[in-house]
Amino acid sequence: MVKKLNEEKLTLGICYYPEHWPEDMWEDDYRRMKELGITYVRMGEFAWSIFEPEEGKFSFDLFDRAVAKAGEFGLKVIMGTPTATPPTWLTKKYPDSLNVTQDGIPYQHGARRHYNYNSENYRRLSSIIVKKMAEHYHDHPDVVGWQIDNELNCETDVFYSEADHDAFREWAKKKYHTLENLNAAWGAVFWNQTYTSWDQVYLTRKTVPNSPNPHHALDEKRFFSDSAISYAKLQADILREYAPKQWVTTNGMFGHLDNHKLTDDLLDFYAYDSYPNFGRIIEDHSVKPLRDRKWSWNLSVVRSISPNFAIFEQQSGPGGWVTRIEQPSPKPGQLRLWTYQSIAHGADMIMYFRWRTATKGTEIYWHGINDYHNQPNRRVKEVEAVSQELHKLGQIAGSSYQAEIAYVTNYDNEWDAEFDKWVGPYEAKSKDAWFKALQYNHVPVDAFHLNAETSLEDLKSYKVLVYPHAAIITKEQAELFNSYVKQGGKMIFGCRSGYKDETGQPYMKAFPGYLADLVGVNVEEFTREAPFEETPGVKFKNLQEVEANDFNEVLQLKEDVEVLGTFTNAHFEGKPALVKRNYGQGSSYYFGGVFNLDLASLLIDEFELNDYQDLFDLPEQVELSIRHKEGTDYVFLLNYSEVPQEVTFKKEFTDLITGRPVTNKHTLKPFDVIVLA
Amino acid sequence: MVKKLNEEKLTLGICYYPEHWPEDMWEDDYRRMKELGITYVRMGEFAWSIFEPEEGKFSFDLFDRAVAKAGEFGLKVIMGTPTATPPTWLTKKYPDSLNVTQDGIPYQHGARRHYNYNSENYRRLSSIIVKKMAEHYHDHPDVVGWQIDNELNCETDVFYSEADHDAFREWAKKKYHTLENLNAAWGAVFWNQTYTSWDQVYLTRKTVPNSPNPHHALDEKRFFSDSAISYAKLQADILREYAPKQWVTTNGMFGHLDNHKLTDDLLDFYAYDSYPNFGRIIEDHSVKPLRDRKWSWNLSVVRSISPNFAIFEQQSGPGGWVTRIEQPSPKPGQLRLWTYQSIAHGADMIMYFRWRTATKGTEIYWHGINDYHNQPNRRVKEVEAVSQELHKLGQIAGSSYQAEIAYVTNYDNEWDAEFDKWVGPYEAKSKDAWFKALQYNHVPVDAFHLNAETSLEDLKSYKVLVYPHAAIITKEQAELFNSYVKQGGKMIFGCRSGYKDETGQPYMKAFPGYLADLVGVNVEEFTREAPFEETPGVKFKNLQEVEANDFNEVLQLKEDVEVLGTFTNAHFEGKPALVKRNYGQGSSYYFGGVFNLDLASLLIDEFELNDYQDLFDLPEQVELSIRHKEGTDYVFLLNYSEVPQEVTFKKEFTDLITGRPVTNKHTLKPFDVIVLA
Amino acid sequence: MVKKLNEEKLTLGICYYPEHWPEDMWEDDYRRMKELGITYVRMGEFAWSIFEPEEGKFSFDLFDRAVAKAGEFGLKVIMGTPTATPPTWLTKKYPDSLNVTQDGIPYQHGARRHYNYNSENYRRLSSIIVKKMAEHYHDHPDVVGWQIDNELNCETDVFYSEADHDAFREWAKKKYHTLENLNAAWGAVFWNQTYTSWDQVYLTRKTVPNSPNPHHALDEKRFFSDSAISYAKLQADILREYAPKQWVTTNGMFGHLDNHKLTDDLLDFYAYDSYPNFGRIIEDHSVKPLRDRKWSWNLSVVRSISPNFAIFEQQSGPGGWVTRIEQPSPKPGQLRLWTYQSIAHGADMIMYFRWRTATKGTEIYWHGINDYHNQPNRRVKEVEAVSQELHKLGQIAGSSYQAEIAYVTNYDNEWDAEFDKWVGPYEAKSKDAWFKALQYNHVPVDAFHLNAETSLEDLKSYKVLVYPHAAIITKEQAELFNSYVKQGGKMIFGCRSGYKDETGQPYMKAFPGYLADLVGVNVEEFTREAPFEETPGVKFKNLQEVEANDFNEVLQLKEDVEVLGTFTNAHFEGKPALVKRNYGQGSSYYFGGVFNLDLASLLIDEFELNDYQDLFDLPEQVELSIRHKEGTDYVFLLNYSEVPQEVTFKKEFTDLITGRPVTNKHTLKPFDVIVLA
After folding, report:
1. Are residues B438 and B552 in the same domain?
2. Final residue before a domain boundary, out of A561, A580, A607
3. Would you indicate the residue range of the signal peptide (chains A, B, C) (predicted)?
4. Cβ pairs bridging A and B (under 8 Å)
5. Same structural domain, A581 and A622
6. A115 to chain B nearest CA, in Å?
7. For chain B, what percent of residues have pLDDT higher than 70?
């Protein structure tokens, strides 16, 4: 069942913390929200001490008044369960509820997310507060839905409390049944790690070389994900039971968490917190860094979870904590641009974070749309303008993003590669290269999530699948890919593909393992790029030469394999580097290396995808997105540059915001957006 | 009451550790000190185990002989209380006396300053040893004064033992009386940090994102300072009671310690340890780094505590520990230069660290004036030369440093900014820029310490006050500044001024808060400099253009505000950046940015301060200092360069060292100093 | 007694882990080993859980079958004692057996070497397993020798468990007898560290400035070495008793371990694990980095322990862990080159690590000669070629490396300098410079290990000794050097020589302490190089000028001292920097600085050593090694470059591999080796 947001039109919301502000300010705040065209208000998610000031003593007065007042202005409330920040009385009384470092040092009160998911006390007390809140608000007419906790696995995605070690032991028993199975899966015979009693089993702990058993570490990440989901399920089950008429979701996208499973199993739709301004401060030494435009990739992943989704926190100002995250202010137009970036990728509900900048605590520099002083400012005006525009674009809600190509993602490989210096860095580079090449060539792309339920039909939604460095590929997955290509699909792989099984152990097979038949190669030899030597190259179709950076696999070919590129500038000069094999009605590609922007661009041409050159001439700085509903393509053109960009239309479109026709040359102002049909 | 050293003439001293050396060397050492013109010998400060080899068993024999022998040569002894290094028997028996990391790991025996100030056992045992020493030496004719402990808060200025957590809880109770007050001051409603019982209150502890509540953290620093002062008071009270005829001080200037309050409440005068050679190894990528000349700023701060002061440790050789601090040797002349640097800024007593380089332990590379081998060397000869010169300059003792401009310092802002990446780095840059600009323009400057007792009269000692990035400005302080300017003062502020209250929480006011009336601006919008973009500029008086680095505030002007500079190269091009407002008989200046050397230099011209161009033409490499006493200006010119510097005198002076007149051109040799009247 | 390997001919071996592989693969594996010409198979060293699956329950079945099967193919087994990786049941039941960080955090199960050497339980259980294995295999015809543990002190060379603290206390009692002696040796009077009871004595612990007492720290390293040797002795004694007919050794060369004493006291010969591929990934910003050729120095040190030695792990493929150590593949020829590098330096037995790349655990990227897939590959073929060549070179076994010059090493200085930023970095730079200069000038060099047993005769084996920055030089050592030079030796020292005694405390003497007579200088003054200033120079013999980087000592000369170089570009311009003194029949040299490649090259010319220019003209990229036996010089020329290198022979040699004569010009292919007689 596809979990998607079902809004009738594009709507706006706001994150609001009534408990932070004098009660006599609420009315004015709500009135101004209403005037701005805000529909939703999220609240409650950090207020456990308000709801339960002492253990077992509950108080809903403050939020009852806050919800009622919101209702007076026609605002709909999304209520957060407050478990991201346990009360001080709780962690003091139940220290087993704290998360702990791998070295055994507990995290304490003072920030957030210092609890662990497996403490019995914490689970019990969480159940109680969620049940009390659900009982209290389940039929409140102004409360429309629930956010479980806040940003699960944010701040940290590793957990080493005693409760976690114990739960992991049980998890392992359930998964492996016998120690023989566990020892085999973890390759325990290596370095004499064989377990002879279940009480010897722990999460990874401090080792002398700071390098745990990698198969153990992979399972640990699966466990962290299952723990988080189990904890969310505890809350979701209560909400479903006690508040069956209100929807349930959670927000954020963080590490060691299978958000697809979480959403499929527990939620009505998925909500993301989008902060593209991070893109302006993150070190990025790659060619042509995408900066805030990189968030379009994140939004593509979100879309793979929930085709239509909500943004629960849309960045609306300069961001930062007192001690770190030093972001500049959005420039005039950027707040609007980022809002449309979310919409262009499938968001139908956008909630700005936050109404007014906090005057207390660690986040006094995470600015809301209002400043501390509450005077009108440029950001509020920009939200107002967006709000008015959305009235004209409401019908876009429910439409679907259009893409012919997808980049494949998979949690097993993501978690295995995180730890593996022989895959992880290559995957990061290739993803960057492919996403950039597709963006700059105006070829819309989806993220495609591969899991145990993936069917051939799912794959067949796309003309081309890119799956660069999936170390773990099972026999079943390889057969699925074979079928996909046989039936006309195109699929491309890079080096380090297919050499591991699901435990993360290499097969006793020549690379690329079970893919060998599909791609028609065996890897004859391979090498990492030596750090103080010249980088080899690839000669593509005897024409262009591009770098073969980071890793090289020399390919031995089976029959009927076409060589598209050969190595240069290496002792394996002239040997095959990049090949194509026609396979059934489709074709496979294998590159014995890490993709870079040049090579990915050359390959995109190969695939003959729609780059919409019949409709527009677009400069690189402009992103193209298309959402489709009921026979209409909604075209978004977004200018991420602070320089005006000239666009050429090769047919006449209607500018949906102005209602006017556009044709021929059109100039997008800095950070400007145009939505066409 | 002003706490200043009252020496009748400029005097020299030496740090000596008799317990380190064979007793038969003492006589020769003292004789040579006497020959060098040394007056004072400091000893005893790391010798607790000598004085109390077992708990409750005391022995003064060794130091009695060491003091008596010093007395034979007419040397006066300054006795250190030995609490900076607890005996091994003490920390073994009373582990609660140890300081502990925030993570809970105790520091142990092996170096120094591993104790905490709040352990009851440590306070009790400290009281006993200090009392015993005071009883023993209070009427010794050769012991003239006491140094409490050694370098309080050196090595570390944070303390997390159980005793510290407990003492902090009591400190907070005393400050806030109720948890309601505490919760309000710490903004505890944010992230659900509300305290409901006093036993939940601790110093900051490990948090997941390694970011404690900033208001809590600010109070923690106030507590650390109060703890250190309380511990020093424990000793000072005993010394005052048992040794009333001897003076009392302590040495050093380290973090999280209100040295002004410490001195005002407890000491006779303040003593500083001056190591300018650090300036030759510290990374400094600023424009025209000051290197060792930076110590002139440190000495200015010392002067703000004690207008005439002592140097208890004046660097006299290459410095360094075995494991770190890798300093080169002073070049010929630098030891003398640094001595005069101290004197030029108000030091009337200079004690060299140390007589002879240690042959044991961590500091075998902190060289004294003598080498291990005790043979005559260049450094001893340089001290001898200085000593002879000082005979001719003795009358300078007691004279006062002259400055028309002061740079304002304040502990609340210093401690708040330490933690705040949105203020602290700007304050550091602006301080550097202003100090350099004043040095290079030969405008002497004071540090002005702003605290609760500061009066309008205090402010009126200066024509100009520079207070660049004081985030915390109270209503009362703003009113004081208003009065100062109304009565003719000039005062200049930079961005990030006045937006926080004393708890470190932003006001719900437009920036710059209570300063708005004085400076006549509201901040319309602001931004940090984006790291991968071009730096904006400021056009000053439509003439020069300088960089507007790091942070930009766009200013909205009230009436009667003169625009001195506007922004360039930004989306807010042309908007006001730097303004002046005539206010009563004085004027205020506000710059919506961080000061750099270029801008500070332009502004100094604005202020029309005495730069002594009627008296000299001085090259940038030469520092000018003037001390005044009884109608005479004592002029110090110090050449920090290893290149000769030519000075032009526009009237005739007397070189006080040679006794000869100087006029017209004069060449200062590398590292040379001239003292004129 | 010289401990050397006594092989009759050059032999090959392989590291094999039968427990990792299906038993039905063994036969094929052994057959292929046999076909490759392999003689030895090492096994067992990480298999404790196989031998003792439960405490006190032993099982030899698996390895009995593995040994028997090896025997069927004529392979000889080297058995490893399995103590490098304790079983999980052991560390769970006896947590006192774990090693612990200095901060008190125990290392846990999951990697290797997480035990400590002093745990009574671990020593007891180690004794039992070693005894059981020795009893079982002592008369097995196919088991020829034992490897104790695996790579002692690899992963970490520091140990802070409670058992280590206790053992250190006993070690100190035994060494010092009284606390007075201990306090004197550790300079405890400094910073009041005096011990008054033995229970106050610990290994170094966490100090506030993270800087322990350096004399204490030096003793700690001596203790770590003694602990490791004591643990190895525990095993060696059992093996000698229960398996007297089999030889005993151990492998590796790691920190804080006196491998010379270990070998002399316990072993039959020394075995090294050689991984030159590290040289291709280690950051090396020195002039002309040696990369993999640097391993020739390591092999020289190994040779100083055991003139003929074994390589128990010779790198045979790309190397790396999952999380770190990211090595490229050896290029065609490099595996062969590195094998000959070992042989050229004295190895007579070469065991490749490992037969087949592990498919499990942390080392899945430490490739063996076979890949996971077990198909023939380039590396297997290269081993086969080497094997065939060695048949023609067998007689080289037992021959001796020839060198006229030696670089002196000494554990006291190595361990003291490790911690000392005023010596350690200089020693590292000078060693690099000298080794490079000797390599590039084709002057073979030995490492000469100086210890308490070193005799004048030992020294006299060399024409020249280079001992650049030995801070610790005792009176006895100085007298030994005097005798050596008097009898015709040449000896050269650099700055920072001779100023410390055996405790690491500076003498109360002018530098260079007891060396002053031999070298005829006192150091007048010295300085570290100041980081932001120009580097001084040395003018050598009034001709070339080279840099005088890092540290400068200005020399005062005694009589009859010849100045070879004077300083430039410093305030001590023109003063002596480098001197020579004829002393008896020999001569001494002293340089008041750190050697660089230019200076070392100039000095080598001074020494008039045999650089074999009468025999060859060799390019820099080619290493020359000569082994001698029974009147024959075996000459190795090794090309470390991937570019062909032209060699000129000035007499006719025989290429021992082809059996053909070579003369005049000869081109060494990339990574090629030629062995001549």
Report:
1. yes
2. A607
3. none
4. 168
5. no
6. 10
7. 100
C361–A190 C-beta distance less than 8 A: yes
Q: Mutating which of A323, A334, A335, A369 best tests the B interface, going by the most B Cβ atoms within 10 A?
A: A323
pLDDT in tens, A628-656: 999 999 999 999 999 999 999 999 999 99
Read off the tokens for B300: 């200015």
* Consecutive H or E run containing B23: helix B23-36
A465 DSSP 8-state letter: E
* B492-503 mean pLDDT: 98
Whether B519 and B443 share a structural domain: yes
- Best mutation target among B19, B294, B364 (most C Cβ atoms within 10 Å) is B364
- The domain tally of chain A equals 3
Find the CATH number of the domain harbouring B667. 2.60.40.1180
User: Would A217 be classed as within a structural domain?
Assistant: no
Q: pLDDT tens digit string along B424-476?
A: 999 999 999 999 999 999 999 999 999 999 999 999 999 999 999 999 999 99
State how far the Cα of B286 lies from the Cα of B434, in Å rounded to an integer.
13
CB-CB: which of C99, C322, C327 is closest to A214?
Answer: C322
* Bridge partner list, B525: B554
Asked if the structure places residue C171 within a domain, the reply is: no
Note the maximum CA span of chain B: 79
Q: Stretch A608-617: mean pLDDT, rounded?
A: 94
Based on the domain organization, do C385 and C429 belong to the same domain? no
Residues C623 and C645 in one domain: yes
Q: What is the pLDDT of residues A474-487, one digit of tens each?
A: 999 999 999 999 99
Residue A590 has pLDDT above 80, yes or no: yes
Catalytic entry in A7, A45, A151, A553: A151
| Beta strands across the sheet bearing C645-654 | C616-617, C645-654, C661-668
pTM of the predicted model as reported, rounded to 2 decimal places: 0.98
- Among A554, A538, A555, residue whose Cα is nearest residue A546: A538
Q: How large is the average pLDDT for residues A238-259?
A: 98
**pLDDT reading at A376 higher than 90:** no
Decide if C508 and B359 are in contact by the 8 Å CB cutoff. Answer: yes
Return d(Cα B251, Cα B238) in angstroms, integer: 18
- For the annotated catalytic residues of C, the residue numbers are 151, 313
Q: List the single residue in A48, A107, A324 with the smallest CB-CB distance to B207.
A: A107
Q: Which domain CATH number covers C57? A: 3.20.20.80
The distance of B220 to chain C (nearest Cα, Å) reads 19
Size of interface A-C (CB pairs under 8 A): 169
Domain boundary among C582, C607, C632: C607
Domain extent at residue A367: 11-158+226-396
Q: Where is B300: in which H helix or E strand?
A: helix B295-305
Subunits close to C (at least 3 CB pairs below 8 A): A, B
The β-bridge partners of B100 are B106
pLDDT above 80: residue B1: no
CA distance B4 to B2: 6
- On whether residue A195 sits in a domain, the answer given is no
Name the minimum distance, in Å, from the CA of A5 to any CA of chain B: 28
Among the partner-chain residues C200, C210, C530, the one whose CB lies closest to the CB of B328 is C530
- Residue A149 sits in the same domain as residue A124: yes
**Domain holding C566: CATH number?**
3.40.50.880
B341-365 confidence digits (pLDDT tens): 999 999 999 999 999 999 999 999 9
Residue whose tokens read 């550091």: B428
Q: B234 near B129, Cβ under 8 Å?
A: no
What ipTM does this complex have? 0.97
Are A242 and A358 members of one domain? yes
Tell me which residue in C49, C108, C318 faces A528 most closely, judged by beta carbons: C318
CB contact (8 A) between residue A200 and residue C365 = no
Nearest-CA distance from A247 to chain C in Å? 43
C265 located within any domain: yes
Q: At what angle do helices A23-36 and A378-393 cross, to 10 degrees?
A: 50
In terms of DSSP H, where are the helices of C309-449?
334-344, 378-393, 411-418, 424-440
Q: What is the pLDDT of residue C2?
A: 86
